Amino acid sequence: MLILQRAMPLWFLMLLFTGCISKKLPPRWFSGKNLKHTKTEIIGYAKAEELTIAKQIAMRNIAEMLQVDVTSIFDMETKSSKDSYNRRSSSKINTSSRVRLNDLRVIKVEKLNNMWFVAVAYNNLSLLQKIVNSIQPKRESFTNPYLKQTRLFQALKEQFGFYPKAKIYAQNGQYYIAIDNQQFLISQQEFVELFTNQEHQNIKIKLKDRLHNNELYFIETAFKEFGFASLFLVYENGVVVNMFKNIELVDATFTYPDKKKYDGLRAEVEDGTIQSRDIFVALVCKQKEDIELFNQISTTLEKDSFRFGNLLDLMGKCTFATKIVTIIR
Questions:
Q1: How far is the C-alpha of 153 from the C-alpha of 256, rounded, in Å?
Q2: pTM (2 decimals)?
Q3: Residues 185 and 223 reside in one and the same domain
Q4: Whole-number Å distance between alpha carbons of 300 and 292
């Protein structure tokens, strides 16, 4: 038997179709359309069933865009009668969800179909511009001999007429600078800009300015004054490692690593990057200093490897020299 079925009205089909789409599609502004923000702001988008979680996800997405995740790999070639032996220690520290960002503002919130959609903006001005726009520092004594020579502090002196008193510290694997009771995030690129070559007549670091990826190398150091010598390596992601520490000497040379035991250190560029910069810091202190808080190279790394601020403190009371090395693919 043939059964005829009445067709559904067109308006009902359109309503049904529209209802299905609305449950799946986010609001139009969620794709960046008609969302007002300044040219210097980075926007983080997120959705979640709870508003607080959506905001946290949006902030984490901004942190990831600022490339605050860090990956550290250390590699040393040990001498072997037949094949080279790689002694490698690596660790990955995901810090993006714990980074403290200033100048965050929620610019759009909407609840749709039991989901919260948010857009959070972060003012991505340069570190220099953020400091200049935010503070009027007091004229206090600031004598750090290293930081005064960096590009950032030279620019701050031009702005304020003096070097503002500052402290650099790390938290959750990310560096901040504190000036006049305010804290500012230092991005990875801005951290690298704190690197500067500084020579000293009594300390020499002999090493090529440019190394190729996977190239093996040694660091030759010479110390002409009496004291306790140490050598540090600071990677551009902020990790600080100690190579040798508190060696008592006077008018002596020291090569790292030991050529009798190792074929050298291996220069490495992280995957996905063309080049990287490292800075070597050699210093001589009049007395033994506490170096134990710095991780040794080729050991398991943890978040306490971010100790550039502590190294700056040491450099403030010891004689030092620095050398920047660029590693290219």
A1: 32
A2: 0.73
A3: no
A4: 14
